[in-house]
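Input sequence (327 aa), recorded before submission:
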Amino acid sequence: SCSQEMFSTLLMVLLWPGSCSLSIAWRSAIHRSATVTRPMRGTAFLMADSVVVTDGTDSFFGSRGVFQAIFDHGDFGRITALSSCISDAKKMLLSRQARYSGLVDVLQFSEADFAEGLAGHSIWVAANADPSALQEQVAAAEAAGITRIFAVLSSEAERASITALETTLSSSGMTYTIMRTGKLTSEGAGSGLKLGEIDLPVCEDVNKDDIFRFVTEALTLSSAYARSFTVCPSADDSQLKQMRFAGCDRREEIDALLRGQITERSPDEMAASEQTAEQEEEVEQLEAEDSLAREEELKMLLARAKERGIENQKKMAAEVGRNGCSG
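Predicted structure, C-alpha cell format:
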C-alpha cells in the first residue's frame, strides 16, 4: 500500500492552485487505501471462496484473459470455467502461460447444467452477459450458494433490461456489481480509466487486460458492492500517474476510482493545468538562468578583486623598496 513517507510527495505533486478540496480528497483516499489488502494465497480464506466464470457467448475466446487475471491478482483456491463444452473451453484456456504460471493447478472445467455448475462456488463472474438472461438465472445462482456476482454486460445491453436486472439483484441476498464497457482490445494497456453511469452510450475501445484487472480487484473491494456503472478509457491519466509516482498499486488505484477520487478533468481544466505547468517551467528556467548569471557575476567580481589585491601588493612592495633605498 502507499507508505506514509510517500504521502507528502503525493500532496506536493497534487497541489495545483486553488486545489485545497482536491488535496483533502486525496488525503482521504490514501488513508482509506491503506486498508485495501487481500489475504495471501494458501490461507484458510481461499478454501471458502472459489470463482466460477461463464460467458454469455458460450465461448471464452473474448474473456479468456479474465482467468489469468483472477489467478495472478486474486486469491482463490479454485477457478471453474462453466460452459456447454469442456473440450472447447480447454482449447481456449490451456495456454502456455496458464501452464507456466500455475493457473492450471487451480483451473477446473464443467459442462454441467447451470445450477449444478455453480454449486460449491461463492463467486460468479458473468462475462459478456445478457441482462435479460442473467435476470432469469439470479434465483438459481442464489440457491446454488453464490454470494457474490460480477456481471460484465455486453455493450449492446439495453437500459430497460439493465434496470430490471438491478431490481432483481438488489432484492436478492447476493452482493452484486454490474459493469458495462466498450469493445475490448489489446491497445492502450495501463492508461487511465473513468467511471460513468450504466446507461451511458457505448464508450471507446478499452484495453482488455485493464478491464480484466479491474474486475479481479473489484470482486473483493467493498467500494464496488451494489453498484452499476460503465468503465471507459480516460483521456486524463494525470491523477493515475501521480498515484503511481507516490507508490500506490493497481488495487489502490481501482479503489480510488470506484470511490470517485479519480475523475476525468474537462478539456478546459486539462489545458489550464498544462498552461500552469508550462508557466512554472518557464519561471524555473528563468530563475535558473538568473542564478547562473549571478554566479558568473560573482566570479567576475572575485576575479577583479583578486587582480586589485595583487596590484596593491605589488605597489606596496615597490613602495617598501624605494623607502629602503632612501634610508
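Checked by second reader. Confidence is low (pLDDT under 50) at residues 3-35, 41-47.
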